[in-house]
Predict the structure.
Amino acid sequence: MGKEKPYLVVILIQLIYSGMFLLSKKAFDGGMSTCIFVFYRQAAATLVLVPFAFIIEGKDLPPLSFITFCKIFGLSLLGITTSLNIHGVALKYTSASLAAAVSNCLPVITFFMACLLRYESVKLKTSSGIAKITGIVI
């Protein structure tokens, strides 16, 4: 069972994503606002994850400065929330199948952007470079 565990986790995550796409599409087709749906999704995630954070990391919490809090808040607002709102609007006008296909392209798009901005480099003569290109092609 030890060797199969990572594969089962990946399959479980993909099933959760598929369920989320289908649930989102059903909610949007029923007339729910994409912004309200994203708000409820973020609020539910917060309510579920905060207790785990305090239980697991509660003893070792470093102090959080106001500047760090503002940076985290800004990143959450502009990064995750905005991308979820855009994704919701796109899902409202397309299908859940297209949303699932596009979400699987995100690592490829991120890799291309990192290469364009020179955060990532690819050396085709090394095994890691060949692995990167193979992963992108697959």
